[in-house]
Amino acid sequence: MHRLVVNRDRPEKGLGRELMQWIEQGIRFAGKDRIRLDCIAGNDKLSQFYKQCGYTHMGETDGFNIFEKMLTK
User: Fold this and answer.
1) Are strands 64-70 and 34-40 parallel, antiparallel or unpaired?
2) What is the reported pLDDT for 8?
């Protein structure tokens, strides 16, 4: 999902959340049960978005916020 963005000037609302749900439902790898994401630690808007999408902030590493979400089956 590197550099995936949504144009904030577009009238559709919730497109970013819909994209996240689509990705979460489509990603399946044997033996993997979660998705991990990161973003620059100072990017408060993106960090808040990940939290709103159900990701848990796991901490900060090397200037990046780390987020994780368990996949449902």
Assistant:
1) antiparallel
2) 74
Distance between first and last Cα of the chain = 21
In whole angstroms, give the CA distance from residue 62 to residue 44: 16
Q: How many domains does the chain have?
A: 1
DSSP string, 33-65: -EEEEEEETT-HHHHHHHHHTTPEEEEEETTEE
Residue 63 lies in a domain: yes
Range of the domain at 43: 15-70
Segment 7-44, tens digit of pLDDT: 777 767 888 888 899 988 888 888 889 999 999 999 99
Q: What is the pTM of this model?
A: 0.84
